[in-house]
Give the backbone structure.
Amino acid sequence: QKEVEQDPGPLSVPEGAIVSLNCTYSNSAFQYFMWYRQYSRKGPELLMYTYSSGNKEDGRFTAQVDKSSKYISLFIRDSQPSDSATYLCAMKGAAGNKLTFGGGTRVLVKP
Amino acid sequence: GAGVSQSPRYKVAKRGQDVALRCDPISGHVSLFWYQQALGQGPEFLTYFQNEAQLDKSGLPSDRFFAERPEGSVSTLKIQRTQQEDSAVYLCASSLAGEKLFFGSGTQLSVL
């Protein structure tokens, strides 16, 4: 079993809908949690960066971390066709700089 | 530079050939990482540099993989005697202090 699990999708939603993504993890040492967006043939781009538990909002994006359940979420409001991409969760512990990624969820926003 | 630059973008190698993949990080970024991304998977950590020092190489899959960053800027990932299972996208990332990573577009390696 992988340290970070993520449903591969694809997740198809109509334009304007809320996209809900999540990851579960097994390593209780993870303290920093990130969401990356990756377009085809491009490198991952950082969307959200959170430390420990709680919520963080940035524009249309909201990230939630529940360390007690080892569960993190990303919500995208008012989704646009340009949001169609693969979304990767990533996390790391307090020590070291190595990120552990989930396998990614492919999202399709249909106009 | 404006972003992390990787070259070549695509590399086709015959099994058994050696390859070298280059990464130009964002100017001034101290930390540099290499990740391997198989088709349909998330990136997997290979190695990490702080300036010219390779502080973590725990993700390198075998001794055929070697990375260097001799002057603390440009880095090269070398794969000797390539095998089909080495086919993947190799991503380079840099950061100021190892927290928020900026990725390049990667080198897609195909071993035939």
Q: What stands out?
A: The interface with chain B takes residues 4, 6, 8, 32, 36, 41-46, 49, 88, 90, 96-104 of chain A (CB under 8 Å). The mean pLDDT of chain A is 94.
